[in-house]
Amino acid sequence: MRASQPALLAAGRVIADMRDVMVTQWADWVGDRITAASTIPRATVEREFRLILDTMAGMVGPLRREATAIWTRVSEHYGRVAAARGLAAGEVVEELQYLRELLIRNLAHAFISMRPRQALAIVLRLNRVLDRGIAVAVVGYTDALVATLFAQNGVPASSSEYDSTEVERQLHALELELGSLIKTRKR
Questions:
Q1: Where does 5-186 sit in CATH, by number?
Q2: What is the mean pLDDT of residues 44-56?
Q3: 146-176 burial string, b = 16+ CB within 10 Å, else e?
Q4: What number is the average pLDDT over the span 164-177?
């Protein structure tokens, strides 16, 4: 089952238009987890949420094939930051599962105006994208934990080192990459 190009564009527009609302809802739901690790500022986590939603909008748009590589890197980065936030692997999955719920709830009004077959195709596409993102985020999370163990000769450190400048630089690079992809489409 394939979604039509107009249906994909409509879903991408809704995600882009509702991004800030969904980031707020997502951050409110995550709540205390955002500030559980004092080393990760809330603004950084919310910036990561915005990047995820912007990439999701690209994943249902006309450049979805090109956006796939960016989605993989964004998801892996999210997993690595989640490890630095002190989350358990299940919490990483749970946070991204909540994104699934937010997307379905916020896209519901767009689904109503589509033929049922098109709406179902969009839901299936979003689920496939999110499932892959969850798997990659867990891999990124695990890689970050393993790297921490190897860096300490197998002995967990009492405090994990977090380089906020490096995380901000990585986020900026991902945002630029996604931005250049979007600008390519607008030409």
A1: 1.10.490
A2: 94
A3: eeeeeeeeeeeeeebebeeeebeebbeebbe
A4: 90
